[in-house]
Design goal:
twelve-stranded mixed beta sheet, GNAT_dom, N-acetyltransferase domain-containing protein, Acyl_CoA_acyltransferase, Aminopeptidase
Length: 367
């Protein structure tokens, strides 16, 4: 295996951050008091760019208040002479990263102030700050700086990323499955052996996190989530639409003997905790309904423990989710998938009637 040089060398962090002078804005770090301002700007940008979503103040508050976020050093807000927020720059890192240390850039410029070079300088600041964070992480791992763009975003954004040295690395598809107006029947999925479908509850929350970390270990770009991360963004979470599959009689001895069983799962098994083997956790993004023109349930995460693939656990959880959506009058089921998902998810979704509505691209610098 190729020996990596120290992360501090690979990150090539600048000693000082570049100033943002374009547009004659006044800059300061973000604070929780800025939730309404940031939400309004995010939605103004989303509307101008034709994005298929809108953000609520609760979602913004969760993002800014995450315990691991350092707004004082990892954010900037740019105000015009009238005190109106016109641009934002955020950089986020994640405490659970264990195989790749990551820093992601978020933010943008109000549509009325685009074209003056603000976006380019914001991105330069974000990339410089991301390099500083990776260098200071102390994690001798591969590094990644990333950001996202909707495929329908204005072309200048994509060109700006390319010009700054970011490369298109991964592609995602936003899929829709109608639930009304003659839509195909939701399949009945029979589970075998000791597998049992149950509604999501607090009692299986951490067991579901462990299942998710195992399910996504072989997915590009995925990193384990701490419990703090797992529960941090739930303002739109719909537990009444969410389901998990548990194994009532797992072969504990075989799982403990399997080298692929991670340490956290081992500890849970030894403690007699429930073993979640598949899951579908869903949200109600009501602010997006008018934008898309229909109501929907959104599947945030869906997966199956690697040792249980092929036993239809995730399919059963997803089918139960779709029934819950339909039972509450939702017109469609929606989810997002990595187009190169290694578990064959694309084929599964196609067989269930999901079709692509939107797409997005992850741009990265690999270190």
């Amino acid at each position: 295996m190729h020996q990596l040089s120290p992360i501090a060398e690979r990150a090539a962090a600048p000693a000082t951050l570049p100033e943002i002078t374009a547009g004659a804005l006044t800059w300061r770090p973000a604070a929780l008091d800025d939730v309404a301002r940031v939400t309004a700007l995010n939605n103004a940008m989303a509307e101008a760019d034709g994005a298929p979503y809108r953000e609520t103040e609760d979602e913004t508050r969760e993002e800014l208040a995450a315990p691991w976020r350092d707004l004082e050093h990892d954010s900037l807000l740019g105000f015009d002479a009238e005190g109106e927020l016109r641009a934002t720059a955020f950089v986020a890192t994640f405490p659970g990263d264990v195989t790749t240390v990551r820093a992601f850039a978020f933010g943008g410029v109000h549509p009325a102030r685009r074209g003056a070079g603000i976006g380019r300088e914001v991105l330069a600041w974000q990339l410089a700050r991301a390099r500083q964070l990776l260098a200071a992480s102390g994690k001798e791992l591969p590094g990644r700086i990333g950001t996202y763009a909707e495929d329908d975003d204005p072309a200048p954004r994509h060109r700006m990323y390319l010009h700054a040295g970011l490369e298109p690395r991964r592609y995602f598809s936003d899929l829709k499955r109608p639930l009304t107006d003659g839509a195909a029947a939701i399949p009945d999925v029979a589970l075998t052996g000791s597998l049992r479908l149950v509604p999501f509850s607090n009692e299986v929350d951490d067991a579901t996190r462990l299942a998710h970390n195992d399910a996504f270990r072989d997915h590009w770009g995925s990193q384990p989530q701490t419990m703090e991360q797992w529960t941090a963004s739930r303002s739109e979470f719909a537990p009444e639409w969410s389901f998990v599959v548990v194994d009532d009689e797992p072969d504990v001895a075989a799982l403990l003997a399997d080298e692929a069983t991670d340490a956290s799962t081992r500890a849970a098994l030894e403690a007699g905790a429930p073993l979640v083997v598949a899951y579908a956790l869903n949200s109600r993004y009501a602010a997006d309904f008018p934008v898309r023109g229909y109501s929907f349930g959104y599947t945030d995460v869906l997966g199956t423990r690697r040792a249980y693939r092929g036993r239809k656990g995730a399919l059963a959880a997803l089918a139960a989710s779709m029934r819950a959506f339909a039972g509450d009058g939702m017109e469609a089921a929606v989810l997002d998938v990595d187009t190169e998902n290694p578990s064959g998810a694309q084929g599964l979704y196609a067989s269930l009637g999901y079709t692509k509505e939107h797409g997005s691209t992850m741009y990265t610098i690999e270190l």
